Amino acid sequence: MALTKRSEDFSAWYNELVVQAELAQNSAVRGCMVIKPYGFAIWENMQRTLDFLFKKTGHSNAYFPLLIPKSFFTKEAKHVEGFATEAAIVTHYRLKNQDGEMIVDPDAKLEEELIIRPTSETIIWNTYKDWIHSYRDLPLLINQWANVMRWEMRTRVFLRTSEFLWQEGHTAHATAEDAVQETKRMWKVYQEFFEKILAISGVPGEKSENERFAGAENTYTIECMMQDGKALQACTSHFLGQNFGKAFDVTFANKNNEQEHARATSRGASTRMMGGLIMSHSDDKGLVLPPMIAPIHIVFIPIWKTDEEKQQVSDYITNLTDQLEDVNLPIQFEVEGNTYKFPVALTTKIDRDDQKSMGWKQNQYELQGVPLRIAVGPRDVAGNSIMVARRDQEDKLTLNTEGFVDQVTEILRDMQEKLYKHTQEMRAEHTVKVNTRDEFTKALDDGKFVLAHRDGTMETEENIKTQTKATIRCIPYDEDGNDLYSESGVCILTGKPSTKRVLFAIAY
What we know:
508 residues, alpha+beta, BirA Bifunctional Protein, domain 2, Rossmann fold, Translation Initiation Factor IF3, twelve-stranded mixed β-sheet, 14 helices, 33% helix
């Protein structure tokens, strides 16, 4: 079934693509999703890469309970306020049979209700008080791969679901300086991942006070432009100060043997990245996957008519795939002057299924975004060549099998680079500076990212959101952490003085 065109209905296109590419589907549980094997393979590649980066930067994985006592949430006021309306609550622990129907046993009510974790700061910091006693125990760098529950009223697969998968990092530090450095370091790790693995160019910056994570003193984000002009918050890294250290009495003896409360950071990236990946690169034919994240890099489709041709083609393809075994796509990350080399193993598939037509196979692998498709028939064997269909281009390439490995890896490298540049160019083309309310509204209607002045008050920020549905996505920073758009101006709503432009957009 053909996909709805993006230009006609972007939302319908996205929903259809998720299903037809066999990435995920809605579940029987309202607001939750089933991630199918192909979609989960993409998530596993994301997880594998981020886990590599976390461990290279000194973090260790751990696991904490899914259920959190309600009383923990009352200890940090801003935090509980931020998640109160999304909390899913366990109140009973037993069912019983009543007249053939299973009901909640009213006598099995919990003494204290349990919250299904919307995030784990409270349960983790309650645990940290048993782990941290001296400055020698710090920094404590912990990551958790888990699921969380945030009760959503309006859901869309990957982008906003009641249950989703993510990683959440939680670190403890002796000084605020160390904690802020950690917050920004992991923010940079996310930037490297989005640029070099997902091939997405985002806007790094700091969240406004109104948009910060609940309980944070500072939140750093990466805001990405989707093809419809809307923003997607890709990930966040938070400096939490001593809020959780004080709330859960996590103290340590400093070098002067004085007691202090530990400083905290947290960070997270979720299966929402799957939605961002889809909406950044894909087209009206289906998914387009950057090679660095694709579960399958090359699919070979044999073509034959006779048993003799079948054997010749099979042997020919086997020889090619043998050459690709143990081949890695080169990638390296740069974080705070350190270089981390990550091996992305090149993966192949041979589709020998003779129950499906050649046309069906080509369409399916195009729909699923496999970077390279290679159909091999007797003529290719005779000519010692192959015809390569590259997912991001219409024209096919004819390659000689001599130097086959180098040619294929160069094509994949070029594809990765061009997909990233495309997101850079798209964002640059659709980002505008405005100085008036009318210019602001028109730019939003045209699907733009908007750089505009605001007076800095939460009231004005809320009024802009109410009137236009646009929010401050971030205060954009350069690579050195400086404001990109510090300049004098006046607020587009109140006319009051402003010292910098911030990034507004309508967001998912």
